[in-house]
Design a protein that fits this description.
Length: 64
């Protein structure tokens, strides 16, 4: 069992807490980089939420 499988197992069924944790980590990274990489951080947050099934925006088409 990989580390990702273990993490998914722990977060399964808790999309609200997962989403909050990903947002908090992204905000921390934005703060440490003074917003220099905010686009990349936002993309990473969305991908993590998709990976863990906690993204409420996954039904929405991508913005251009």
């Amino acid at each position: 069992m990989s580390v990702m499988d273990k993490i998914k197992g722990m977060l399964k069924g808790h999309p609200d807490q997962t989403s909050k944790g990903v947002d908090k980590a992204g905000d921390y990274a934005d703060g440490k980089t003074q917003g220099k990489y905010s686009g990349q951080v936002d993309t990473a947050q969305d991908r993590l939420k998709d990976q863990f099934g906690a993204n409420p925006n996954q039904d929405r088409p991508p913005q251009s």
